[in-house]
Amino acid sequence: MLSRHGYRACGLTDFLDWLDGRAELPQDSFLITFDDGFCGVLDHALPVLSRLGWPATVFMVSQRLGQPADWSMAPDAEDRSRRLLDAAELGTLRDAGWAVQSHGRRHVDLTELDDEALNDELRGSRADLATLDEAVDVLAYPYGRHDDRVMTRARQAGYRAAFSVQPGFNRRDADRLALRRLDVFGSDSPTALRRKLALGTNDGSLVKQLRYQARRVLARLHVAA
Ligand SMILES: [Zn+2]
Fold it and tell me: What is the Cα–Cα distance from 5 to 193, expressed in whole angstroms?
């Protein structure tokens, strides 16, 4: 649906180059990211995105590769849908042009850690994943949680960019350590998804759309007056 409407997914490197003003991207470019890296990313997302020729980025919990997501649900090693991708499976994504980046070591709220534990999460996950990707220097904060101290430490630990879950668009003047993203859920209808993308909001409801259009009309009238 997004492809039919002219949207094009770009790769992480292209996005960062665009952000730094070193490259241009076509209108309606966007970035696809997956946090945690459940097996469903490989089983369901990769085939569709490969058909479109669209790359994506997966943010991995570096000490839980190939294991159940123990921070969010009861461990069940037999249930593939609850398991995170392992190193070999991540290799398949890499071969398809995907980026593999950091989501910390154990999926903990970084704002609650002391400096030593925070450093271990930030630097340790880079080291853990270094064998999978040539440069692990982009982070997605677990639960999107970050503050000034976490952002400073992340920069010092070698991250050149980090993603929050604050909704909105990223312009070139965006804080590299607090990049915005939209939440996309399996329950989103295609229409709701398109509205989210058009408006830069997590609320894909029609009411929001109408309000937005009303504001735009009012803004134009104001300018005209
Ligand atoms: Zn997560």
Answer: 12
Question: Which position has the token pair 């997302």?
Answer: 45
Q: What distance in Å separates the CA atoms of residue 61 and residue 48, rounded to the nearest whole number?
A: 24
- pLDDT of 87 reads 95
What separation in Å is there between the alpha carbon of 137 and the centre of ligand 1? 17
Residue in this structure with the two tokens 């492809």, named with its chain if needed: 3
C-alpha torsion angle, residues 70, 75, 77, 79 (rounded to 10): -110
For ligand 1, the distance from its centroid to the CA atom of residue 34, given in whole angstroms, is 9
pLDDT tens by residue, 149-165: 999 999 999 999 999 99
Q: Are residues 200 and 158 in the same domain?
A: no
Å from CA of 214 to ligand 1 middle: 36
pTM of the model: 0.89
The model's pLDDT over 104-144, given as tens digits with 9 standing for 90+, comes to 999 999 999 999 999 999 999 999 999 886 789 999 999 99
Shared domain check, 126 and 172: yes
CA of 59 to the centre of ligand 1 (A): 8
**Residue 157 shares a structural domain with residue 225:** no
How remote is the CA of residue 103 from the centroid of ligand 1, in Å?
7
Rounded Cα gap, residues 49 and 13, in angstroms = 17
Report strand pairing: 33-36 vs 161-163. unpaired
